[in-house]
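Progress against Task 2.4 (sequence-to-structure conversion) is shown through the following example record, which the project officer requested during the mid-term review.
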Amino acid sequence: MKRVSLKGVVIGSIADIVSTNIVLLPLIIYVMSTSGQSAQVPDSITQVLMASSFYRVSATILGALCSVLGGYVSARIAKHDELLNGALSSILCIGFGVYALISGSAAGATGLHLAFLPLSPALGALGGYLSSRRKRSAALSKEQPEGLA
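Structure tokens generated for the chain above:
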């Protein structure tokens, strides 16, 4: 259990979810304002968003980038076992995805939810890998003599 940084995983998970919601909010507003429909009921908002292929593709890409960010944050906080801690930062995403599949709220996008179950930890691990690369390059730059830099 010493390999897992609980603090890093929790903060990385929260960073993933919060950043995804912050990034998607302007996209949702844009899609809703350009749809020409006045959707006040939450069900109709979801229908308008899921009918927009622009929204689905953009939300998928932005959500994936936010998962990488969550993994990076988790790995930076952990300062060790970056890939593991980065991958574990996706625990909230996986939990929400499983809940959506079980509750039936993923009805229109079941395939996408199923694809993101293994993809979320992979994206978090990518963030952890990027953190380890940054750490390695910083360590190498400190080892070089002054005249060679």
